[in-house]
Amino acid sequence: MTGGSSEGGWITGGVLNWVNSFGYQVERDVMYGPYFGNVEQQVYTAGSTS
Question: Which of 33, 40, 44 is nearest to 10 (CA)?
Answer without folding.
Answer: 33
